[in-house]
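Field reference: sequence -> structure
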Amino acid sequence: MERLDRIVTYVEQQGYVSVKELSNLCDVSEMTIRRDLQRLEEAKRIQRTYGGALPFNQRNSGHNSELDARSEGLLVDRVDVLINSSINPKYDKILLERIRKKGIPTIAESIQMADQTPLVAVDNYKAGYSLGFWAGTYISEKWKVKPQVLDLTYHFHNTQNRSRGFISGILEAEPSSEIILSINGQSDFDTAYQLTQDALTVHREINVIFSINDTMAAGAIKACQDMNIEPENILVLPFGLEGDSLKNMLHEGKYCKAGLAMFPEIVAPTCIDAAILKFNHHVLPSHYITPHAVLTTRTLEDYYQLTSHGWVIQWETIRNVFHYTFPLENKGMPLSLCYPNTIGFIVPFKKHEWYRTLIAEMQKRATFYHIKFEVLDAKKEMQDEMDFRRREIARLAAEQIKPSDVIIIDEGLMSKYLAEALLNKQDISVITNSLVAFEILKQNLAIVLILLGGIYRRSTQVLVGPTAENALRDLRADKLFIMVSGVALSFGLSHTNVSEVSIKQAMLRSAREIILLADHTFFEQESVIQIAPLSVIHQLVTDDAIPASLRLEIAKMGIQITLASV
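Structure field:
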């Protein structure tokens, strides 16, 4: 069947491919693609994964390290040098602090981050300007109309610079150009698709769509197709040309007639070579500016050749057109350098073609130097980081408990971690409404367990209601370990569910000492319902990412702060 063969070919070219991407490629429903993948897996032509597919032999090949099973521990604890890209400001701070404490040499890819040099990236404003200037010139000369622009941007400052550069370029080429809308497309296919449909429904005059990456450009093109807008009436211009998908569309020359190429084949080895120099304590520039070029349907094949394995960079053209910092094309740096054992790469958007291509090229360069290359999704790394921090908070909280203490363990994110930290305790009594904590602690026969009755809430595995609250009236505990959804100086302790608020308030009345367990992400948050003012707390156990200014304000209230330094 032609569609099945097309799926296999595309998966073999791209590595991991999502169901959604295949659905767009083949122009069939996702349900049809899932049935196709099942048939192909049964025929041993691909391997199904969660949400997509891999080439048949890829899982065990060792070449796609971003999909391999990970050894225990955080990536930043296992590498000699780290290549990092921004996740979001909230989490960047945590990760950068851990990197700083470990003393790991780090470089930044795509976006500048605090204390991370050099940055390896294109000049985003200049590149955006060149694409905008091309667009303004093309539309005014070829279409003889006024460019009217939908800008699909993103909130990072590098992507904002792309949009600003594009807008400046198109206005320079054609001063009558009008920016109809500039919208944050969330760097997501579905969001870009919906926003484009909405924008084109309301503003039918839009004839240019600029996207700060290929993912959103693909969503915009799909929206144009579904709305039956003729390619002669609208121009979709991506910043990236990151993998084969948009190059194929550029090659067709329909909606996409030009795009800004960032050349991951140059960026990736530059990152690896810069990481090696950073490992050797070389003084490096603040920014390695990598090449860019506006490619059109006509000039695409000057830079890339279409082969049976996809689009392959034309190094002869690259050598003649660009200057780049490091020796490429299977040429390396001096053997006299000290080479790291492992280089790590933290990826914010693992499914984007930019990062899939970058990972493959970095892997190739690291292998050239016989360096181990590890990749981890940024979201997974942050989940591991927060899990680690919460376990440390629970460990410190468990140290507050003395033999013969009667304690209450509230329901919350920390319940599981605290229960695990108490497994080796002797001669304590635990009152809880958390079935998660109860199931863990019942393994220790030396702990007296009191499970409060009540109504079972499946969503949080907790017992609530009048029965549980009445039971607490007849109980007294030395310590309550309470967990909430929000902590704010003005609004105090707050939570999301009224039935859980009532039981938490009953617990507060039953304990002599109140200990709040909360990592930094819960602070300066006001949830739906107030439980109590912050002043009811005697002790706070938290992590070191909570701002010093906030710690000071809490300490002024007479609350003891125990800090998990991680």
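Note: The chain has four domains: 2-55, 65-122+265-290+326-377, 124-261, 399-564.
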